[in-house]
Amino acid sequence: MTTETPPRIALPGGEMLAWSDLPERRLPDGGPLVALVARLVPAGARVLLAGPHDPALLDRLAHAEVTWLLRSLPDGVALAERAGGRSVGVLVGGPGGLPTGKTFDVVVAASGLDAVESVEGPRIGWDGLLERLAGVLAPGGTLLLRLDNPAGLTRMVSATPWYAGRGDAEWAVGGALDVGRPANLDQLRGRLAGVGLRPGGCFAAYPDAAAPTALVDVAALDGRPTSGLLDAMLHGACAGGHAGRPVLQDPARLAVDALHSGLAGALAPGWLALAHRAPADAGRPAGPGPAEPGGPGGPGGLPVALAQTGPPGLGVVEVTAATDGWRWRVADPVEPAAGAPFATREAAWRDPAAHTGPVPEGRLLRTVLLDACLRRDLDTLRRLLRGYADWLAGHADAAGRLAGATALASPDNVVVADTDVVVAGAAPAFAVLDASWRASDPWPVDVTLARGLWRFAAALATGGYAHPWSSTLDVAGLTVVLAGAAGHDLDRATVAAAVDAEAAVAAALRGLDGAARTALADELRAVEPTAPPPGSDSHQQLREAWLRQRAELTRLQALLRWTEDLLTSRERALRRADATINLLSGSLSYRVGRLAVTPARLARRGARAAKRRAADALRPRPTGEERR
């Protein structure tokens, strides 16, 4: 093994030579976490990155002086090579290698403290690590620290017990079993205050603390449990983050239920907590003022939420708090691509300029519809569905076609402004939640309505939700029934066209290639009520799908038994009739009757023949001219 290292790497001792901590799962451009760190670091700030982070941070922190503290020598070499000619200091050896007397304006430990301490050096424990990092924080500085939740959603839905891991990443036991580290937010705030820091805001990381695609302010989660934005954000993050991975139950459903119960912050897979050191002079801060989530937009405030949506390269969407409510913002807007030829044009595209206005207030239409279905509230269902259909028709042009964001307005991207008026019987008000995704070409109103209702029907049927309609309906039939409740007459051909449109839009949103598009279209066309939701590998949903299949097989077996009994009874009746006929055909009375009937039949035939001959004789014959 070679011991040569780049000159920018400092080895104070304790480095781990055959170890790597760099995250295996990485989001495009670093995702919301990198965007958050970039917002925390002002120009010219001295930044300490403690522990392994996404190397994309180096590109986003080009405006700052970066020092990276690692324990893995191979990771340090890789990061030093990535830095190139930039003056990025790399320390390999654990917290004992931090230079004495040097302080930093921002300290980032977004991978937790477990990956900071080296097993080749003296062990100081979680509290010792926190005290060491707090000691190098300059007056007025900010600390960003990650803490995994031992009772979080990830552990609740994971099919593998957290205590059964034997890989390198599971060498440290974290959570409630270790009293030497905090296990919840209150304990974390107490530890931060114990080292002389002032606890600040906190972000809940979904769906995974290691690679979050959504960061939401905990105070916003606790204070806005009915927000349609947070509902859609948590559902989308958990549904996409656990797709194709075996889980015990649907993480998206659990996250939304936790939100409505006011527990989304407490059950988050992990937290990113902010803490600040008091300025050197209370009257004049020594460094940049601390940023807090939920503050007004601008350099001094942090967003309420950050989310990675759509295919790679579209940037991170932010939600900031203003005096008039929440507003959209794109952290690094990407210019929309030029229009492609019609043959290669995507069915949908994203317009970053749409993320500049206010966020529509209200509850998510999908959630309100599910609630009405579970309560078998047909009156509310009819009012909501009819209002949704009328709202779509009201945005159509003279040719009955929808364009832009309204063409893609499905119940999981539409909010109901005031649900109380729906219960009271008034007409609901609707609005598109995320208007950045737009249809490339106008769609007929019926196709848009059928697509939205099909998406809801598929979730309703494959998710195992109880609803007031027949359980023997397939997804297309349930879509037609929902359309009837909305006052529209849709046929199965329109529903099939809507499924093809859904496949094209989903492929555009996910950035799929040709083969993946074809596989997705086939998967959507094959959706059945007896199958689990597409893309899901939930044991709970698989069991529910098995129960639905067993109920369907029981119904079919009962139908087959009834059909067999009916055929058996008909066969017995036919055999009795045949036996009666055979018995009668051999009796003396049957033969005498046949001898009496036969002359009558012959006489009737002769009379018919004589009548025809007489008619021919009496018919006038044509003359010669008539023949010509």
What kind of sheet is the major sheet?
12 strands, mixed
The helix tally amounts to 19
Rg calculated over all Cα atoms: 36 Å
Arrangement of strands in the largest sheet: 1-4-3-2-5-6-9-7-8-12-13-14
Shape: elongated
**What is the CA-CA span between the terminal residues?**
118 Å
User: What is the arithmetic mean of pLDDT?
Assistant: 83
Total number of beta strands: 20
Helix content, binned percent: 40-55%
- In percent terms, what proportion of residues is strand? 15-25%
Quick recap:
With 628 residues, this protein is of the alpha/beta class.
Structure notes:
- With 628 residues, this protein is of the alpha/beta class.
- Among the domains are: 177 residues, no CATH class; 39 residues.
- The chain has 19 helices and 20 strands.
- The strands form 4 sheets. A 12-stranded mixed sheet has the order 1-4-3-2-5-6-9-7-8-12-13-14. It has a 3-stranded antiparallel sheet with strand order 15-20-17. The protein has a 3-stranded antiparallel sheet with strand order 16-18-19, with helices on both faces.
- Helix 4 links the parallel strand 5 and strand 6.
- Helix 8 runs antiparallel to helix 9, helix 10 packs antiparallel against helix 11 and helix 13 packs across helix 15.
- About 3% of the residues have low confidence.
Keywords:
alpha/beta; single chain; 16% strand; 3-stranded antiparallel beta sheet
Indicate the topology:
Elements: E1 9-10, H1 31-40, E2 46-50, H2 56-60, E3 65-70, H3 73-83, E4 89-92, E5 104-109, H4 125-135, E6 137-148, H5 153-157, H6 185-194, E7 198-206, E8 214-217, H7 218-223, H8 228-241, H9 251-260, E9 270-276, E10 292-293, E11 301-302, E12 305-308, E13 316-322, E14 325-330, E15 348-350, E16 363-364, H10 365-374, H11 378-394, E17 401-404, E18 414-416, H12 419-423, E19 430-432, E20 437-444, H13 445-462, H14 475-485, H15 492-510, H16 514-525, H17 539-585, H18 588-618, H19 624-627
Parallel strand pairs: 1-4, 2-3, 2-5, 3-4, 5-6, 10-11
Antiparallel strand pairs: 6-9, 7-8, 7-9, 8-12, 12-13, 13-14, 15-20, 16-18, 17-20, 18-19
Helix pairs in contact: 8-9, 10-11, 13-14, 13-15, 15-16
